Amino acid sequence: MYKNFIFDLYGTLIDIHTDEEGEQTWDGFADWLTAHGMPYSGSEAREIYKAEEAALRAKPSPYRYAEIDIIPVFSLICRRRRPEISDDEIWQAGECFRRISTKKIRLYDNSRKVLDGLRAAGKKIYLLSNAQRVFTWQELERTGITDCFDDIFISSDEGCQKPDAAFFKKLIDKHGLDVKDCVMIGNDGSADIAGANAVGMDALYVRTGISPQGDLLPECKYVFEDGDIAHVLELIAKR
Fold first, then answer.
1. DSSP 8-class letter at 191
2. Rounded to whole angstroms, what are the CA distances from 62 to 59, 66, 86, 168, 215?
3. Which of 4, 160, 230, 232 sits between 20 and 30 A of 45, alpha carbons compared?
4. Distance between CA 210 and CA 22 in Å, rounded?
């Protein structure tokens, strides 16, 4: 019987659609910046964001699948207009950008049922998400699942992302987990499932509406194509 259930977030527990490229997103963000003493046009803010993001991603990393923290990008944008701006306000700028760029966000129908069911069964529940903390934390709180996890690992904090085995090992090592007692649940075969396979961990793949298009069915112990995360509860008595 599995003791530890490790979840992906977006596309697995949360259904989300964002638009970080659209003119409306950048104009809205520029309006927020301007109202807070940092006058920008949408095109100006976008140009700085894209250039600085690319520069950060080009830096050397010890990891095969590196991840950046996007906060320095928002810091650069803000401090070009307000050098004295506080770190808290920069964080608020990042949160605002995410809210403006998010067109839809909701828990999948059975996500809370699964998390509550695992907790009632005495299981440990972990989150392993390729994400930016400044974007994700507010969404965990908004959807009401922050307290459902025994620990939360976000790639922007760790400098690496799935499918890097190093990302999984950070969780494994911190909590002294035996991979034989663990199962990874995700909707992306090339990230969630490939990473689990890299560390010898069982995995459950669920194909959802935002699984990568053309994603081939991955090689893992459990595969469900109906998009229903409730299948996880079937594992409580399996081993």
1. I
2. 10, 8, 31, 15, 28
3. 160
4. 19
Each residue's pLDDT tens digit, 111-143: 999 999 999 999 999 999 999 999 999 999 999
Enter the DSSP assignment of 192: I
| H helices present in 18-110, as ranges | 23-35, 42-57, 71-79, 87-101
For residue 4, what is the DSSP state? Answer: E
Lowest mean per-residue pLDDT among 27-31, 112-116, 161-165, 213-217: 213-217
34 vs 181: CA distance, rounded Å: 51
- Kindly report the number of other CB atoms within 10 A of residue 68's CB atom: 20
101: CB partners within 8 A, 6+ apart: 18, 19, 20, 22, 25, 29
pLDDT tens-digit series, residues 80-117: 999 999 999 999 999 999 999 999 999 999 999 999 99
**Type of residue at 77:** I
Distance CA 204, CA 218 (A): 10
